[in-house]
Amino acid sequence: MPRLALLIAVCFAASLRAADYDLAAPQHDYWKRPLHDPFTKFIGEVEAGRVKLDGSGELPYLRSLLKALNVPVSSQMLVFSNTSLQLRLISPRNPRALFFNEDVYIGFIPGGRIEIVSLDPQAGGIFYIFDIPRDGGPFRAERSDRCMNCHAKEETFYVPGLFIKSVVPLATGGNLQAFRQGQSGHAIPFAERFGGWYVTGKHGIAEHWGNALGRNSPEGVLQKLPLEPGKSFDYARYPVASSDILPQLLHEHQTGFVNRVLEATYKAREVGAKPSPADSAALDEKARALVRYILFADEVPLPGVDGDAAFKADFQKANASPLREFDLKTRLFKNRCSYMIQGAVFTAMPREMKLRVYRQLALALGEVQPDKAFAYLPVQEKRTIRAVLRATMKDAPAGWF
Fold it and tell me: Quick check: 340 and 332 in contact, CB under 8 A?
């Protein structure tokens, strides 16, 4: 990342971390507001008997749950660090599996409980945990407040969001070092990613902390102890035999997007319909930073990734948008505008905040007086992005683009 861009990103991140939101305040009402997230709706469908899950075993149940929530099994990622409410169950021999689409994130540990983060466009992450029903027992999902200990802190800008931990696990349990604290998204160097995660698939990323434990040498030097995915655990206990690099890259991008949009939503709601000049300037700053993220301005260069074919197909089947066309040679996408802009979390952003984002997008993607901060986008790429946004963003102001 260029030094100026890095400075801007760091300064903006620091300004976001200064905010701390009262989630129980009337304008947010996180705990009591009616919920419209996918999993809360799903609970109603199960309780009404309109959805049936396969109770014949752990894996059949998980597969039927993923299918019912439209979460691709190919999105599987395996994490072995003790970074969950169920930390006593997680180890290199029994990793936790994560699955996701744009709105639902599912955690599964063999022998453990199912964990859910389901995104409500207004409230943010809604957290559930439940046992897999045994012997025909009832389905009972409880909303968890303990998840907020990590999912509404510095890394999520103090709103209920998504949280990725990258640590150096010890062979004896616990963690020796943590990376990228207070950060999420595609600008994080690869050398600070994947700590405590299994990583499979072909890629050119030379330095990262995946597939490794750590220890300190007698001289105090941090050393890596390599782990081979599938050697210390049995892939047969999971739906698929992979923890592919591509889902992990997209998971990181989505996490950064969701956290930034939700924080902007909370800030706009707190400021209200008639912001002071200072608040208006703060909202403009958030809009500029959000547009930089949406347009991948600070994306870490990608040194080539193959990506699991099944995941690629599942990802692109969800939406035929040009924003979902992969590059994977030097960057994630051919057209550098986040596909998440077409999703529910962005769509539900307060009108006043969204108009500021639209104005910044128009400036960033303009050709008459091009913004130098977005000179990395060729003219044809800008035109493709504008055409997609013009066709899909139905609430954009008149004359936009």
Answer: no
The answer to whether 97 touches 71, Cβ cutoff 8 Å, is no
- Which DSSP symbol is given to 315? H
Mean pLDDT of the chain: 91
Count of C-beta atoms within a 10 Å radius of residue 91: 17
Instruction: Tell me how far apart the 2 most distant CA atoms of the chain are, in Å.
Output: 67
pLDDT in tens, 207-236: 999 999 998 888 776 888 999 999 999 999
Count of all residues that appear for the chain in the document: 401
CA torsion 83→311→308→169, rounded to 10°? 0
H-only helix segments in 365-394: 379-392
Predicted confidence band of residue 398 (pLDDT cuts 50, 70, 90)? confident
Q: Which of 191, 203, 196 is nearest to 332 (CA)?
A: 203
- pLDDT number for residue 19: 58
d(CA 127, CA 120): 10
With cut-offs at 50, 70 and 90, classify the pLDDT of residue 15: very low
Residues of the chain above pLDDT 70, percent: 95
Cα separation, 66 vs 14, in Å, equals 37
Determine the angle formed by the axes of helices 277-294 and 351-364, rounding to 10 degrees.
50
Alpha helices in 69-160 (DSSP H): 148-151
For residue 3, the model assigns a pLDDT of 38
- CA nearest 125: which of 259, 1, 271, 325? 259
Task: Write out the two tokens for 4.
Answer: 């100026």
Distance, in Å, from the CA atom of 322 to the CA atom of 380, rounded to the nearest integer, reads 13
Counting Cβ atoms within 10 Å, is residue 58 exposed (0-12), middle (13-18) or buried (19+)?
A: middle
